[in-house]
Write a structure and sequence with these properties.
Strand content: 5-15%
Distance between the termini: 41 Å
Radius of gyration: 24 Å
Strand order of the largest sheet: 3-4-5
Shape: elongated
Structural class: mainly alpha
Order of helices and strands: HHEEHEHEEHHHHHH
Number of helices: 10
Oligomer: single chain
Length: 211
């Protein structure tokens, strides 16, 4: 997924000459804590937060240009950048919003922390079986039965609990991605398990071919 696919295209942007009082009303109405300030070509020239607005009102500033943050201090991502870049920036820097720009440095969208949380919530509800179906598509020539058999063996090796391929299939059909992450002890362990399954099923396939 690219940043362009995750960003919100319906965002409000400001002009440096906008009135601070009027902007405060707009931000309150649309319930936004941050807004980009752009020029006539929609290129980023500043950044405003609700804290800047509060300070501007308190100090009697009239124009947004008097209180906006320097664009050099604003971290942006390009439309073509991986969406994970925006996710990592948001998490590591506790950003509320990350602006997205195109190749002409024009602001084309916003990636907000709330949008990322919503996306992750949707991912957590995906059935684990869907991930295995995608995995099977990547492992050309591997049947679903072979994949389930390898998965059962990896699960047994990891947990010490014997499980059949049929039982494993039932589990992934009824479990979500989020539940699987909790059950396996975290995201890294879950994907490490998937990698082990892929390695095992390929090794078994190669072994059969050599016979």
């Amino acid at each position: 997924m690219r940043a362009k696919e995750l960003m919100d295209k319906n965002f409000v942007y400001l002009n440096a000459n906008d009135d601070v009082v009027e902007v405060s009303k707009v931000m309150e109405e649309i319930r936004r804590f941050t807004c980009p300030v752009v020029n006539d070509n929609k290129q980023l020239v500043g950044w405003i937060t609700s804290f800047d607005i509060t300070r501007g009102l308190r100090e009697g500033n009239k124009k947004i240009s008097e209180i906006m943050n320097d664009p050099k201090d604003v971290i942006t991502v390009y439309e073509r950048d991986p969406a994970r870049k925006a996710v990592i920036l948001t998490a590591n820097n506790k950003f509320v919003t990350v602006p997205v720009v195109n190749e002409d440095e024009q602001v084309t969208g916003m990636i907000r922390a709330c949008d990322i949380v919503e996306l992750l919530s949707e991912l957590y509800d995906i059935k684990v079986s869907k991930l295995y179906e995608a995995m099977q598509n990547q492992l050309k020539g591997v049947s679903w039965d072979e994949l389930m058999s390898a998965s059962a063996l990896v699960s047994q090796k990891t947990t010490g609990v014997k499980i059949t391929a049929e039982e494993y299939e039932d589990n992934i059909m009824n479990s979500t991605f989020g539940e699987a992450i909790w059950a396996t002890g975290g995201l890294e362990k879950f994907f490490a398990g998937l990698i082990s399954v892929g390695e095992l099923v390929i090794a078994r396939k190669v072994g059969k071919a050599r016979r």
